[in-house]
Design a protein that fits this description.
Its cofactor is [4Fe-4S] cluster. It is found in: Cytoplasm. The protein is an alpha/beta fold and about 500 residues long. The chain is built from 15 helices and 22 strands. The chain has helices at about 5, 25-30, 35-40, 75-90, 115-135, 150-160, 175-185, 230-235, 240-255, 280-290, 310-315, 335-340, 345-360, 375-390, 415-440; strands at about 30, 50, 65-70, 95, 105-110, 140-145, 165, 190, 200, 210-215, 220, 240, 260-265, 295-300, 325, 365-370, 395-400, 445-455, 460-465, 470-475, 485-490, 495-505. Helix 10 (about 280-290) packs parallel to helix 11 (about 310-315) and helix 14 packs parallel to helix 15 (about 415-440). About 40% of the residues are buried.
């Protein structure tokens, strides 16, 4: 597609004039559709690695006098993508506004994991319709994982004509071009690549805070769990070069960040695609633990790729926290097989035993799906008993949500919604009781808390998280925000701890 086609102009420079939207012609000009079939391909094509990202000079002043607003849904990866897009906007001269009614560009950075996430986005688009009517020059865009789904793009095309642009997870670096096209074109600009994915370095970032930072170490997923749309929306597994990651973490440490979370859709598969290196997540963590930064975490891991080298390195402790989020999804081997998780209940328990032996004080949390197609009462009970046997501190629990295009969406489901909700209630009751017991153990103890800011409920109270990711609320001078402090726990609740401020933790104790 050449630039003239992209701008919806004829070769002689004149605009294409139509009385009505002729979508067959429109697709040929500015529409690059997503394809789940193409997105599923995992070929041997080499991942392209670009470290020369620059803002085109012709776009440099595009945002002068204009404001942007990004609304983010979903996981930390989406949050990080928002940081990158915000960085690009600001490099173009835009300024951020938290008030979308004052924005010149509004982006919805979307999540496709569950159906209710999509419902929220379509509901928000409905609310934005009146704002667009009041301000016709406002640009509205949909990006993120939902944009990679054919059904979503078709729905927006047919029912949301006030949307100006749609772009996918592989197209973020193309934001300046997409904005330019949206300003110039009279039609909706749709650019969604269903390729396997490249790696773009040197993208600008406007970090959401100055205390914690997210660092992408890899992109995509090749596991193809039958319920999950992520391998289609995020492309194949591809790892960043270790030297680029280490340099980014060093820079964040120099800027005073206290905690780094390494991100990936399947983060512990890191390095397995690097053909010229024998270098895994364990090796990366071993190198990063030598950097002078208090805390390093990673998410989200897949049990199948949690290897002995990673366990060995995590056991060294230091700035590598002893909290591990390990999604199990089900306690039934039969359901796990239908989910294509590639491990059994017994193998998961063996992994947990290895981790606990190497890291005796480890805290484990997990994700669980209830009501997967044809899940029996007995299979659900296996999930309940596994949760207790492992001794998870807590879990994020969900009712199965079918995603169009995934194998599970085609499975016959004989579990009624009434039964699914009852199972979720039973599981949540167990999770709540377990979480309360885990929290109760902290009463009277002194914990180290990274202070993130004021409590959402009371500006006179500060809050932050421990190494084990426990939320702590306490009263202290505002000057300690951004520092690691000691707090004595006075009251344990189901999901948080209250405590009394003791004082700052000496720097040498945090690394």
């Amino acid at each position: 597609m050449n630039e003239e086609q992209r701008l919806n102009k004829t070769p002689d420079g004149s605009e294409v004039k139509t009385e009505e939207k002729d979508y067959s012609q429109y697709f040929n000009r500015v529409y690059q559709p997503p394809s789940l079939k193409d997105a599923k391909r995992r070929g041997k094509e080499e991942v392209e690695y670009h470290d020369d990202f620059q803002i085109d000079e012709r776009f440099r002043e595009m945002g002068n006098g204009r404001k942007f607003h990004i609304q983010t849904y979903g996981c930390q990866m989406n949050e990080h993508d928002t940081e990158v897009m915000a960085g690009i906007f600001m490099a173009l001269g835009y300024t951020f506004t938290p008030d979308r009614t004052k924005a010149d560009v509004i982006l919805l950075n979307t999540c496709a994991i569950r159906e209710n996430a999509e419902d929220k986005v379509f509901g928000e688009l409905g609310h934005l319709k009146s704002l667009k009517r009041e301000r016709p020059d406002l640009l509205i865009g949909v990006c993120g994982c939902m944009s990679q789904e054919e059904s979503v793009v078709n729905e927006i095309l047919s029912r949301q004509p006030h949307v100006d642009m749609i772009f996918g997870t592989h197209n973020i670096h193309r934001l300046p071009n997409i904005l330019h096209e949206a300003y110039m074109s009279k039609e909706m600009v749709v650019e969604v690549w269903s390729k396997e994915g490249d790696i773009i370095e040197n993208l600008p970032k406007q970090r959401l805070g100055h205390i914690k930072a997210w660092v992408n170490i890899m992109y995509g997923c090749d596991k193809f769990c039958t319920y999950c749309i992520v391998p289609y929306t995020r492309g194949k597994e591809r790892s960043r070069r270790p030297e680029d990651i280490i340099q980014e973490v060093r820079e964040l440490a120099a800027q005073g960040y206290k905690e780094i979370t390494l991100l990936g859709q399947n983060v512990n598969a890191y390095g397995k695609d690097l053909e010229d290196l024998d270098y895994t997540l364990g090796d990366l963590m071993d190198d990063l633990r030598k950097i002078d930064i208090p805390r390093i975490r990673f998410t989200t891991s897949h049990p199948r790729d949690f290897d002995d080298r990673l366990i060995e390195v995590l056991a060294k402790g230091g700035n590598l926290v002893d909290h591990i989020h390990l999604p199990v999804q089900s306690g039934s081997s039969a359901i796990l097989k239908m989910m294509s998780r590639k491990y059994t209940r017994e193998q998961f328990l063996e992994l947990v035993a290895k981790i606990k032996k190497a890291i005796p004080n480890v805290t484990l949390t997990t994700d669980i799906i209830v009501g997967f197609p044809n899940e029996t009462d007995e299979q659900f009970e296996e999930t309940m008993t596994l949760f207790e046997e492992v001794g998870f501190d807590t879990a994020y629990t969900y009712i199965y949500s079918p995603r169009e295009g995934t194998p599970a969406a085609k499975m016959q489901d004989n579990v009624s919604m009434e039964v699914k909700k009852e199972r979720l209630q039973r599981l949540n009751k167990l999770v709540n009781e377990t979480s309360a017991k885990a929290m109760a153990q902290y009463e009277g103890q002194t914990v180290k808390v990274l202070v993130e800011g004021e409590s959402k409920k009371d500006p006179e109270v500060l809050s932050g998280y421990t190494e084990k990711n426990k939320l702590v609320n306490f009263r202290a001078p505002k000057e300690v925000i951004g520092e690691i402090v000691e707090v004595k726990v006075t009251d344990a609740k189901t999901w948080s701890l209250d405590g009394e401020y003791i004082g700052l933790v000496k720097q040498k104790e945090t690394v």
